[in-house]
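Possible regression after last week's pipeline update?

I re-ran a chain I had predicted before the update to compare outputs. Posting the input and the new output here so someone can diff against the archived version. Not blocking, just want to make sure nothing changed silently.
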Amino acid sequence: MSALTKLPAGSLTEETTVRTDDGAALAVTVLGPLSPGPGSGTTVVLSHGWAAGRRVWGTVADRLIRDGHRVVLYDQRGHGASGLGTGPITIRRLGADLAAVLGETGSRDAVLVGHSGGGFAAMEYATAEPALARRLRGLVLLGTAAHDQDTPDSEVRMMGSALFSRALARPALGRRLLGQTMGKRVDPYALEVNRQMFAAASPQVRADCFRSSRGMDLRAKLAAVTTPAVVLAGENDRVIAPALGEAVAASLPDARFEQLPGAGHMLPLERPGDVVRAVAGLLARPRP
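New output (post-update):
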């Protein structure tokens, strides 16, 4: 796994493949420390957003491992090293993919962290399988929404265009085009990592993902998800408005919303410390 920081010495790495019921081969990394730590015994599963990949979690995963956690990361279908199955990309399908990863890696009682489209998948999983969701230790939802994601035709066409792909392939231009996805005073290397991931996603997968959230509204179903949750939103997120994250927290019975000053949409790259802090806060709560 590529990362913004190196994995700590003594960590265990296992690369595996999870096959879905429609034939998609999902690339999965399982990371764990050799020695128990203060957070040992808990798995944290990380679900990335569209046009990203496992790489987006590099610093987050590093810090979680150092805290003694087992960490599971996977590439969404059509991203990174994961293939496409026979079915179309839909929110329901991405939730089912996450269920397969949780089941095959023995992570049903994990803290589940989802960013952006990965948050859609996490909420779909939690609402589609409420009995299993109740076994989760917690949900951390980053820069995400439960509704109002009706991507216009013009944006879908742009995501699928060859011209946009050629622009993303040029480092300086690509970073400039994606600059609105990040907040203030961002590490230039994080900007480049974001560009590389976006450029690596195929145009068709980008278009299909952005099209898939049209008509999504999970708010009513979230009312039945009693799993403790933290919802984080960047103050300067111009991809998914912070108010939509606040609506997610309001829909969940046991959720805390926090807006991060100066941050944009790419919270795993911009604010890894806040992500890890949210996980730690959930784990500090006694099990129900």
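Follow-up from reviewer: compared with the archived run. The domain at 11-149+217-283 is CATH 3.40.50.1820 (Rossmann fold). Marking as no regression found.
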